[in-house]
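Researcher: Quick sanity check before group meeting.
Model: Go ahead. Protein one:
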Amino acid sequence: MADKTKQLLFSDFPPVSTQEWMDKITADLKGADFEKKLVWRTNEGFNVRPFYRSEDLDSLNYLESQPGEFPYVRGNNAKSNKWFVRQDIKVTDVKAANEKAVNLLTKGVDSIGFIIEDKEIITEANIEALLAGVLSEDVEINFSACCGNSLLTQAVVAVIEKSNVAEVKGSINFDPIGDLTIKGKACCEMDKAINSVKELVEATSGLSQFKTFAVNAKHYNNAGASIVQELAFGLAMGNEYLAQLTEKGLSIDAAAANIKFNFGVSGNYFMEIAKLRAGRMLWAKIVEAYQPSSVEACKLHVHSETSEWNKTIFDPNVNMLRTQTEAMSATLGGTQSLTVQPYDALYKETDVFSERIARNQQLLLKEESHFDKIVDPSAGSYYIENLTDNIAEQAWALFVEVEEKGGYLAALKEGFIQAMVKETADKRRIAVATRRENLLGTNQYPNTGEVISSKIDFSKLEKVCTSCQGETEIEPIVTFRAADEFEALRLATEKAAKRPKVFMLTYGNLAMRLARAQFSGNFFGCAGYEIADNLGFKTIEEGVEAAKAAGADIVVLCSSDDEYAEAAPKAFELLGDTPLVVAGAPACAEELKAKGITNFVNVRSNVLETLQGFNKMILE
């Protein structure tokens, strides 16, 4: 790292020590606790400080490596940060899928993902027709099939061998360990499945740029796991493949070269950048332990896909903002290819518009922001380098813990992995329910006028949200979306015979009644209720009369703490059977509860549980 102390600009200013910074911060905090106020405790289990300095990099021994050099923390490529822009196509009609693929190649896409759910489609003739006009040294081709991966590989190899394309890039998303993880059962007995993986690797030995099997660590991302868990368990899955394949006689070079890691990328912007950097470093160390003949075998090959976990069906345009920052994280982190899911993919078949937007989100980063031109733009950032190190340290510790239990499959069968993911996911559920983790438009600032039921393909939504059915060998990890339970509230409201109306009985202190009415409208809006706000009433009697005239189903008293002691009991008595809610946490709360007033909403409330209670009271 360059010595800036002798540069003219920096020499004009006296150096400032860390202690001087801390003294200034302590003074500005005016007695508040530094750790509680400014230090962030992450889901990943480590603390993030509010500022970092060059001295915080002194212990990071990988900083001397260059892009393209072991342990590849700074990227696999020394000269550029190019990635493939992928778009997936569901293959139900071979001719139509081929036409769409050829068309996409004229729109900036250079990676196609063919998703085949019908085994009958997998024939050499169909694969040849599917790849007509697509096969090229500049295009990546990828396949995902629910079954028939051996037939698929044979057909793909045969078609490639008949073509004049010298070097085909691509992959087959065959991941029996991932299937076991997410479904609770694999396609067949695991030893037989690993033998199939070995056979596929051997069948594609002439295709040096083609990856024959996958590690779908993205499942953890979509199950609410932490970034450290996704990385550690993904690496453990990869190591399980390496261990079993090499035991069966496959060389470490062949085994490692044929793995493609599929990671999810969530909205934790800097952490996701650091995750990919840490992942390359740790995987290089893992493969190195097998003593490959070439250091090239130590490279981590990554495809990234925007996460489903934080996407919503209400206010879905916000999904475009989410996927944009996720795409930035993945590309700045050095992914080799990226799929940006269209903003409406959760609840309906995507259309021309949503697919075009998803493509263009990547093209903006590549063609206008030139993210593909600069290798490892995060290098030297005190913050991101420390995040990289922290994630690597935590993920390595968890990886080692899995290995000490006998490896990934042993830890999965024991239930260790599922228990860890569930614990983190449950914490995140609570964080979403209490709005400590925000989903704009869903658990915070909802568009209460939005109606979306008519736009939803409910069969598709159920497919996303429903876990594996039938008998299982092990307990699967459960994928879900953070918005699921809030969306259930909104959909119940839309289906109701009468939309519940929440009336703001604003009274007394002007500043407090306005602030609490705004808070309460946002609160109850998360269930899709109609919000009737008001400028203020001179008396409680006047407010109650207006609420009854409006046909209010819930009345929220919005005033100051001092005024609640008298105003709340009066409103409660006049309203009769209509539920009264007090906005805030007044000192007189216990006295009010003694008088039968039990409903309060404030920043400490569990928004989800509170609204579920009102839904049960009003709609059922």
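Researcher: Fine. The other one?
Model: Protein two, sequence then structure:
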Amino acid sequence: MKPGKWNGKKKAAGGFQKPAFKPRPVRRGQLIAPFGVGSMNDFRNDEALMCAGLDEWFRSPPEETLRITEERLAARLNCSFFIKPPDFSESEGGPKYKIPHVRFPLWHYCPRCFRMKKTTLFGGQPVCTEQTCSKSKHGRRMIPVRIVAVCENGHIEDFPFKRWIGCTCASEYDSRMFFKAGRSAASLAGIKIECEACDRRRSLAGAFEEGALGKIDVQCCAAQPWLGRETGVHSCSAGLQTLQRGGSNIYFPAVQSSIYIPPAHSSETDEIRRVLDEPVMWSALTSGLEDGKIIKMAAEIVARMGQVDATALAAAAQARLDSSGTPNVATTEEDFRRQEYEVLRAGVSNPTDELFVERLDGDQYDWLGHFFKRVGLVRKLRETRVLTGFSRLVPKTDRGDPAVQRLSIDGSINWLPAMEVRGEGIFIEIDSDAIDSWIERSKAPGRLGSLLTEFNNRRLIRSLSARNIDARFMMIHTLAHALIKELTFSCGYGSAALRERLYCNLEDPNQPMNGFLIYTASGDSEGTLGGLVSEARPGRLQRLVEDALRRSQWCSNDPICMESPGDGAMTSNLAACHGCVLLPETSCEEGNRLLDRGLLVGQVRRPDLGFFHGAPIT
């Protein structure tokens, strides 16, 4: 992928003249996360650029080959289709798409003489022309400053260096600013900002403290550089916070994902599909419906002509009719997950479809059948990941939240950037009766009471809504982590190559979901080689769970880990650390939060606390 930079003049509507591009490599998948619209990326030659909005991604309608169709997710996100970030090709006659970037931050400094210059969003990289710095006629290349100012509403702007030191110069052109880094100390106190023109200077000590910029009366200007706006079109009352340019909390992509669910006719046999795909046969079946239903006599006549079973033909034709309308739009994330959950637990028998699940009952797994109701061998799956927006400082995912920034100015853009990945996985449905018996026996909710209260209090302080987390959810989540850890030893995948997808209802107890999907998906291949699925076969899954639980019984950080009163991000974990169940952030849906291996294997003094208490673990 070769992003370019805009180098044109600003138009009134936020668009730009045709830019000049310079090759800078970014992979296609990275343009969804972590280097999507609004994020900063460091390139070679000391350049820091920000991925521009969707308005300038294409100068003509994108090609059909870049479109991704996922009706269920498109209906959920209220858009028409999705677009894969274009793949740059250097071959003759190949596409020459380039993703535009803007230059941010704007302030740069010379690493030799420390002189500062401010460029524009669409300008080139500044150079220092002082004779003491470079004898080249092109000057010495300047590097971007390492700090920026961000607000909770997702806006970002340059750190106010002039206001910070109290510079009285009329403009950047009148001032002579210097960024003198690390001259007296390695801390922020060692970074001095000076203006020779008005003889003002100050170190950056205290710049990262909360409210530091508010004390010098610096307000957020609602800047949206990725949309070409150095100053926003609306006011913003949120306070600015100083952050490192590469800080992990400077960009949180809001990514929605979906596991492809085949249409209702995915269970058709090849013979029945051949009959239904014939226009004459389909017309004969559907020309005379009764209350929207296939007439039995018509199905029998067509079945004799096609030499197939009449009952199976009528059922398949009716399924096509029922699924041909508008897809069932899930109003909540839980409803959206429930659609996938029901398909995974029921199984999908058509190996030619993009979701192929072989369902096995729990009683085929000996002692494990007391805990697992069903196991799904997901031989094929397709996942669609869509970038819907982003936030800063605090991760937020609701598109309706004003803190989630938009990806474009033009409201008529009816697509979002996305990518498809294919792979395989293991689906496990945990027996609800076993969960109810465990909760009643172990009194597990009592162990989590204060932890979950503190977790929700911290969410409320950060302007996030409280979540209805319970012991069942934490147990299922921790089990998924323990199995992923063990799978890295048994099937050869790295832990970062495996992902979890949790199915656990938190809102409606009358519609239980007690399961999870562990899967691997790659955007660079048409699937994987079956190593993950093979670990879920009877005989092997029992050993996998035994080994995972045995490792969970003792951690290298015990007894401190097991007896922890609360640890991890937002104090949301109990017995969980990098020595036992924590995973790479990309593998966990919850950001390594809400984990407790004590809910799996119990404690030394309370072995019955564990869900698997009584399992034959040696």
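Researcher: One line on it for the slide.
Model: Confidence is low (pLDDT under 50) at residues 4-21.
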